[in-house]
Amino acid sequence: MLVFCYICIKLFLIKYFKAMKLTFVYLSLMLAVLFQSSACRKTPTEPDLGPPKSKDVEIMIKHNWADVNVPAVLGENYLHPQTNETVNFQTCRYYLSNFQFRKTDGSWWSHPFSYNLISLSDNPNYAFSLPDLPFGTYDAVRFLIGVDSARNVSGAQPFDLAPSNGMFWSWSSGYIMIKFEGSSPQAALNSFSFHIGGFKDSDNTNTTRWKEISLADSPFIVSGQNNPKLKLFTDLSKAWDDGNLLFDVSSFHSASTRAQYMADRFQEAFSLDGVE
Amino acid sequence: MVLLRAYFIFLPLVLFFACNKDTIVDPVEQIAFVAPTHFPAPFYDFTNNPVTHDGFELGRRLFYDVRLSSDETVSCASCHHQASAFSDAGKPLSQGVAGAFGDRNSPSLSNLAWYPAFMWDGGVNHIEISSFAAIIHPSEFNMDFAALLNKLRAIPEYQLMFEKAFGSPGIDDQRFFYAMTQFTGLMISANSKFDQIQQGSAAFSTLEQSGFELFQSNCANCHAGVLFTDFSYRNNGLNLDFIDEGRMGITNNTDDLGKFRVPSLRNVALTAPYMHDGRFFSLDQVLSHYTFGIQQSATLDTSLTESVQLNTDERAAIVAFLNTLTDIGFTSNPKFSTPF
To answer: What percentage of chain B exceeds 70 in pLDDT?
Structure first.
């Protein structure tokens, strides 16, 4: 085939370019091809980065109700110790995002893209992975409860932020940061539905809350030797603290002062269980 | 020497063929987002969602596919007809599955890449998700979005189209919305007589010219610029009591009661009926409203507290001008018509 090509080209060149300096033709061809080959250069192969300097860590969340020894799951009745309201969850979902870890030199390492939709099920525990945390020792963690405003105004988002998760308002764009739905004898029609959302500071409807948890007493070590786990408690009863929400109102579905109120309470739900 | 020459000939040949594998030129018509030179900078940036022929064609198919609705009776095109500049061809209110009526008039769709927000109340903040509300609304498509994605995943034709459009198999939220945006974002209407006049290739008639001048002094305050809207929300005096609270439903601000987005007037002669509730069936009715019908309420736009005085001739002149905003090239462009 190549020989055939060569002959054809050769004949072609001899026929039409005899008068021209063949070297000129060769050079032109070479130049044209070199130009084209540089335009279609393949992406370089992954450079060898040497031994890994980071690893995926696991975040484990244990849901409980008012007492770390009372696991919280869907479909069970829980009595609130302050308000005497009974809460039975059919849905309990919320976002934790923007994970940051404080190094022992006091600087914070921020995860570039960590948006996690936590769903309560018939298992009180929920685990997810945070990829590529650099090796090191960390003495604090902080994260956003909810989804930052940038992701609320940037169109179609992937993964846990996808609208098909049912956590995005279609009629007034923005994430439902926290969704509590279920039944209660104290609620109107025996059911409640709290959709907590709103992301704007400008009109005071921001329901995202930062939570910082100290790891000073049990530093979080990420190294090549271990499989690091950060274990947190989420006490769902905290969202009902300091008020009779169900007596007062059994549903809200838009940015509001009630949503702010519940977001403030839910911020207190998170505490450290331990590290591994 | 012969060998050397052979080498020089072969080398380019071999390189040429090796390279060609990597640079397959799309043989089909090139589709691209091109902003008209007389338009301002677009609001939407296609950088993260690069337009391709296959992406555009996928969006087009989705736009016209009734399988997106729960009972497979409506598609986007059911309320957004191309011949009516993608408005609702005479229906005051949108009509969804099982004949259910929505709350508002389906707006005309064009030049959406310039829109900072969507819907009459501006509740949707991004073009990519502008179809989401219609799809899940019980009176429109009535589809659970996760169920819709599963439905599309089971259709071989869509499996293939998504793979072609995005380079790998898989159907997800982002790909769905990206494809829709490639289609709807490219629906640009910028070649009406008005546009041709802007570019010096046509001229107003005497009547149109006088209508244009009346429009500039009476209407362009809100219907501003080449998009004929300043994208603000205003109460234009339709009501004293508000069944539909409009913008206030989004902001919870009582100052926004009864305010709706100033609509673009591009192709306005084709997009009757008018207003958020489709109450006016002719442009003359609309213009008469501004002269005779303004209702004085607390949130009435300050520019309308004294009504706009337009006599019959002046209204006719403005209508003549508004007719120059009709872009037949847009409403008849086969690129935007049904692929079914």
So the answer is: 91
Task: Show the domains of chain B with their CATH numbers.
Answer: 46-189 (1.10.760.10), 193-329 (1.10.760.10)
Nearest Cα neighbor of B137 from B62, B61, B79 is B79
Measure CB to CB from residue A36 to each of B19, B129, B181 and give the nearest one. B19
**How far is the C-alpha of B270 from the C-alpha of B280, rounded, in Å?**
13
> Which residue in chain B is spatially nearest to A257 when comparing CA positions?
B252
Mention every residue, 6+ apart, whose C-beta is less than 8 A from residue A107. Answer: none
User: Which residues, 6+ apart, have CB-to-CB distance to A269 below 8 Å?
Assistant: A234, A235, A236, A237, A238, A239
For B23, the closest of A40, A156, A166 (CB atoms) is A40
Indicate the SS3 state at residue B17: helix
What is the rounded distance in angstroms from the CA atom of residue B162 to the CA atom of residue B185? 18
Tokens linked to A129? 């992975």
Residue A157: closest C-alpha in chain B: B174
pLDDT at A24: 47
Per-residue pLDDT, A245? 87
* pLDDT tier at A45, thresholds 50, 70, 90: low
Q: Give the tens place of pLDDT for each residue, A66-89.
A: 999 999 999 999 999 999 999 999
User: Is B12 in Cβ contact with A33 (below 8 Å)?
Assistant: yes
Residue among B9, B16, B132 whose CB faces A170 most closely: B132
Residue whose C-alpha is closest to residue A135's, from A224, A26, A33 = A224
User: ipTM above 0.90?
Assistant: no
Residues of B in contact with A203 (CB under 8 A): 251-253
Q: Where are the alpha helices (DSSP H) in chain B?
A: 2-20, 53-64, 76-79, 132-136, 145-153, 156-166, 173-184, 193-198, 206-218, 248-251, 283-288, 312-323, 328-331
Q: What are the distances in angstroms from CA A200 to CA A149, A208, A256? A: 7, 9, 11
Exposed e or buried b per residue across A19-30, where buried means at least 16 C-beta atoms within 10 angstroms of its C-beta? eeeeeeebeebe
Which two structure tokens, joined as six digits, stand for A260?
């702010």
Q: With the C-alpha atoms ordered A254, A257, A260, A264, is the resulting torsion angle positive or negative?
A: negative
B6 CB near a chain A CB, below 8 Å?
yes
Q: How many residues does chain B have?
A: 340
Q: List for chain A the helix, strand, coil content (%; round to 5).
A: 25, 40, 40
For residue B38, count CB atoms less than 10 angstroms from its CB and return exposed for 0-12, middle for 13-18, buried for 19 or more. exposed
3-state SS, residue A64: strand
- Picking from A40, A156, A255, the nearest residue to B129 by CB comes out as A156
CB contacts of B46 in chain A (<8 Å) are none
Q: What's the mean pLDDT when you consider all of chain A?
A: 87
Question: B122 to chain A: nearest residue by CA?
Answer: A172
Beta-carbon-side half-sphere exposure of residue B194 (alpha carbons within 13 Å): 25
CB B81 within 8 A of CB B154: no
pLDDT for residue A55:
95
For residue B274, the cross-strand partners are B280
pLDDT tens for A161-205 read: 999 999 999 999 999 999 999 999 999 999 999 999 999 988 888
